[in-house]
Write a structure and sequence with these properties.
The protein has helices at residues 7-15, 30-37, 41-69, 73-89, 97-125, 128-160, 162-165, 171-182, 192-200, 221-251, 258-305, 310-334, 344-373, 385-442. By secondary structure, the protein is an all-alpha fold. Helix 1 (7-15) packs across helix 8 (171-182), helix 2 crosses helix 3 and helix 10 runs antiparallel to helix 12.
Amino acid sequence: MEKSNTLATKLAFLSASFMVTSAYAIQSALPQIKNALNVTQPQVEYLVTTPSFAVMFFVVLSPLLQDWFHISDKHIIMAGICLVGIAGLVPAFVTNYWAILVSRLVLGAGYGLYNSQAISLISVWYKGHERTSMQGWRSAFEQIGNACTLTISSLLLIYAGWHAAFLVYGLAFAVMAFFAWRVPNDTHSTSDDDSESSDNDTNSQTISPITNKPVTKISPLVIGILFFVLLIKMDFIGMENRFPGLAVAIKGAKFDGTGTYLSLMLIGATLGGATYGILQKHFGYIGTMYIGLVLLAIANFLFGFGGNNFVVIAAGILLVGYPMQVLTPLIFNILPFMAPMKLQTKLTSFILIGFNFGAFFSPTADELFNRILGQKLSGLGLAAPFRIYGVMMLVIAGLIFLGKHLYALKSVSQSARNSINTITANKSVATRIPAQEHANINH
């Protein structure tokens, strides 16, 4: 455990998340790829979205593969990162669209193979505030990786062409080597022996902050968390997707600065992940949730009601990353309280499906919101769905506030009933004692 507390080892744990969002690194090369391969716009966009589709399946298959072949978390993470490196580099050497598409599908399989383990492994090795901070920094490393791979890929595109843009995935091998070198051997594997020893180890139990009792089963609140992550991911991806079109509608067809604003948004997202631990320490889980939801609602309202004021719209896109990366590590940090430790990897995979399906379903959801509001799918109408998202965030904050106080009232009521039962029992004992004494005297 001492080894896991060194700075180099912590960086190695975090490095596993560096490549998780690198599927979007080649976005700047899409126009060149489209012309070179002579494909349609939807076809070239599939090169970006296909990895997310594969992730949904492999986050489910990954823990099953671990159970079947008795693979530790550390080794499944190494296998996934290696697969990302191999599949990611294939398009740098081929020109066939279908070969590239298949390689991107395998790339997504690599992400899905280790994404949930990279998250749950932190919950296994770190506890308390240290785990909170590590989850926040893990989220920040995703955004740092996103920004770095996007920048490197763009530079390779400028100086060496679209094939070279895919060379950025060679970074995966450096990440894998660092991870293998510094991360301790995983004694918390999913094998039967390890599971049994974990069950018998009282130190592996997680104590619920609500009931102050060991967590022995999956909480029904997991379903609510799933829908929540689905919603915030649809919101975040939808705003990213619609900002370029909205900016052009306001600034004109020649405006080409959307990439700069999206990069700045990633910096805000990185700060959100980096400061999450501080927020959680000072405001607790519920207080941090309120902060994230309110800021996310403000970002949506700025974006949704900005009209043709580009400054307001830009403020919305620049703000949205921060609360998103405050809420994301918060969600993963409360998962240990939702299920026993031995089910953490499976539960994390379940939640990751929500995130990836939210990204996949975002265009359809946003189109539906446009129709509900009677807004066009072009021009300033692109901002319409985010008015609804903003209201939803405030409603969720209100429900959490109401639920918290109802639970407090229930706890007070239960305590009062317990006190009454104790008093009644004491009176009953008190009335029986004199009667027994009288019987003894007569005898």
